[in-house]
Structure formats: structure tokens, C-alpha cells
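Postdoc handover notes: sequence design on the structure in folder B. Input C-alpha cells:
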């Protein structure tokens, strides 16, 4: 690879075949990196379904011990999820209230640490807009 770079730097004419292959490879890698991002935004709905199983439809909770998420500021939601994921905030173990796993024990540290940064941000923006 190093030899190829030196060779390309020295060549003054049209881009070499190697450079073209290199450019195509970069484009392909970008595509591969962006694909999961595109898939994740479609999946936000299925993540939302998980949250709603405790936080209520649209994040408007009807449970005494589960806070509503709807209308909360996105940055506040995001910060709370980050604190849970890093175990900086105490997690009360609770159970699903609805959905296909009622009464399964779970807490917000489990929930938040299973999400990546992008998913947490998407969820924060989703519930802010409810
Ligand atoms: C098993 C039930 C359950 C599920 C599933 C669940 N939560 Fe929670 N969540 C809670 C409970 C209970 C609390 C409050 C107790 C605590 O702080 O641990 C809470 C607190 C929060 C808070 C802090 C709210 C505040 O007022 O500070 C946020 C943000 C949050 N949840 C987001 C989410 C998101 C986003 C999802 C979906 C990915 C989700 N939760 C899924 C039960 C759940």
C-alpha cells in the first residue's frame, strides 16, 4: 500500500488505475457506514414501542411510578439516558407495563446501555416532539 502511494504521488498524468480503485473503495466504505444510519432512523419506531411499554403511548405515562417523556426537552432526555447508560443515575428496577413481555423486570440502566448514541438522540427528539 505504501509503495502504491509513493508511485501515485510521483505520477503526473491521468489518475492511475490504482487511484481510481482507491476512490471507489472509499465511496463503498462511506456507503457501508451510512447504511446502518439510514436503517436506524426507520427502526426508531420499534425502539419507541419498547419505551411505550412502560412510559405509555407517545411517552404520556399513566403509571404512578413511571415519568412521562412526552414534551420533555430533548437535551434533558438525552442527558438522562446517558446518565443511566453510564450508571451515573440510580436505576429503579421495574417491570414492563404493557406489550408482549408484561411483568418482565427491567430498569433504565439496562434500557439506556443497550442503545447507541444515535438511537438515544433519535428517541430524545422523538419524545420532545410528542
Ligand atoms: C421496564 C420499564 C421501562 C422501559 C421499557 C423504559 N423505561 Fe424509561 N423509565 C422507567 C422508569 C420506572 C423510570 C423512572 C425511574 C428511574 O429513574 O429509574 C424511567 C425514567 C426514564 C427517563 C428519565 C425521565 C426523567 O423524568 O428524568 C428517561 C429519559 C427514560 N426513562 C427514557 C426511556 C426511553 C427512551 C425508553 C425506550 C428506549 C425507556 N425509557 C424505556 C421505566 C422504563
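Designed sequence:
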Amino acid at each position: 500500500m505504501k509503495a502504491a502511494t509513493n508511485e501515485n504521488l510521483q505520477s503526473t498524468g491521468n489518475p492511475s488505475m490504482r487511484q481510481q480503485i482507491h476512490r471507489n473503495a472509499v465511496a463503498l466504505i462511506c456507503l457501508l457506514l451510512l447504511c446502518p444510519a439510514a436503517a436506524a432512523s426507520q427502526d426508531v419506531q420499534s425502539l419507541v414501542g419498547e419505551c411505550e411499554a412502560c412510559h405509555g403511548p407517545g411517552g404520556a405515562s399513566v403509571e404512578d411510578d413511571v415519568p412521562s417523556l412526552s414534551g420533555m426537552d430533548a437535551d434533558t432526555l438525552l442527558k438522562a439516558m446517558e446518565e443511566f447508560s453510564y450508571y451515573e443515575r440510580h436505576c429503579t428496577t421495574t417491570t414492563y407495563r404493557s406489550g408482549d413481555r408484561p411483568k418482565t423486570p427491567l430498569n433504565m440502566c439496562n434500557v439506556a446501555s443497550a442503545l447507541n448514541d444515535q438511537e438515544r438522540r433519535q428517541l430524545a427528539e422523538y419524545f420532545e416532539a410528542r
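Context for whoever picks this up: The two ends are 52 Å apart (CA to CA). Don't rerun without checking with the PI first.
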